[in-house]
Design brief:
304 residues; 5-stranded mixed β-sheet
Length: 304
């Protein structure tokens, strides 16, 4: 049987300028030559060369360039309608195949504190089936399991200054709230001031979390100088919430977390005087996992 050589393209058809079309797709998104160069890891001059080469192959300009802005021409918009979705599907297909290959070797063990927020759940759902394994981390010990290699990545409350832990992504910046019993006098209000918070006993996380982390997530003083008192401790957020419901104590939580731990016997009230908090995606610098980057991309997509 005669062997058919597929060659660089189908017989009689011009070879597709894939690199130039990829550059075009990125430039369509950013409409900025410098940012496109950063995304592609090339020089700005190289981006200009690829776009000029594409326009030469197409036969007409696809961008209108001035000293102030970059815009698509009518032909460019027509090309973008076809090319941009196609390259998105190519990227997603390649990433999915690569993720499946990595996951078959070893699933990504993801540690989390407290609750799995919706963007995190969606990012995990975007990975191949069985590619991720969730591990709940102690509320008051966010870093130990990551540093020991017992999890590959960790989603924890910021900040992190631990040697051996690399911050892959910071996301979900949220204002702070305080949880109190629905029978508490503060539950009748709409917010809690720093002065009111200073007269409320609070529950702190038990564990070996470093002092710099506690100063942000279980602060001893408000930015305005009010002293805060911690009258009890808990190993988990659920344990702390049970204590809140049955005592006159309060619990500090970010606003996003309050949507996942609602109970009829607890009220969540904003504390405008406290600094917002955020989440970090961390990885072990010495033992990086091949799926962490893909997971971070999906997190960005779901929190954007």
């Amino acid at each position: 049987m005669e062997r058919i050589d597929p060659g660089p393209g189908l017989p009689g058809l011009p070879e597709l300028p894939l690199r130039e079309l990829e550059c075009f797709s990125v430039l369509v998104h950013h409409l900025h030559f410098g940012r496109t160069a950063d995304v592609l890891g090339v020089s700005q001059g190289r981006v200009s060369q690829m776009i000029k080469r594409l326009e030469s192959r197409v036969g007409a300009p696809v961008f209108e360039r001035t000293s102030r802005r970059v815009e698509l021409t009518a032909l460019g918009r027509m090309l973008a309608d076809q090319v941009v979705p196609a390259f998105r599907r190519l990227r997603e297909g390649f990433d999915a195949a690569r993720a499946s290959a990595v996951a078959a070797d070893r699933p990504l063990r993801i540690g989390f504190q407290g609750v799995v927020h919706e963007p995190v759940a969606k990012a995990i759902a975007g990975l191949p089936e069985h590619a991720a394994h969730l591990v709940e981390l102690p509320w008051g010990d966010p870093f130990t399991q990551l540093l020991r290699g017992e999890v590959d990545a960790a989603i924890v409350l910021a900040p992190c200054h631990e040697k051996g832990a690399r911050v892959v992504l910071e996301f979900s910046r949220q204002p702070m709230c305080v949880a109190v019993s629905s029978t508490h006098r503060l539950a009748r209000g709409t917010a809690v001031s720093a002065g009111e918070l200073s007269r409320l006993g609070l529950i702190e996380p038990l564990g070996s979390a470093p002092d710099y982390w506690r100063q942000v997530n279980a602060p001893r003083r408000t930015p305005g100088g009010h002293e805060l008192t911690y009258s009890a401790g808990a190993g988990t957020i659920q344990e702390a919430l049970t204590t809140v419901a049955s005592t006159r104590l309060g619990l500090l939580l970010c606003e996003a977390s309050t949507r996942y731990v609602r109970r009829p016997d607890i009220r969540h009230l904003p504390v405008p005087d406290l600094e917002p908090t955020s989440l970090l995606l961390l990885e072990n610098e010495r033992k990086p996992h091949g799926l962490t980057g893909r997971f971070a991309e999906l997190l960005v997509r779901n929190t954007g």
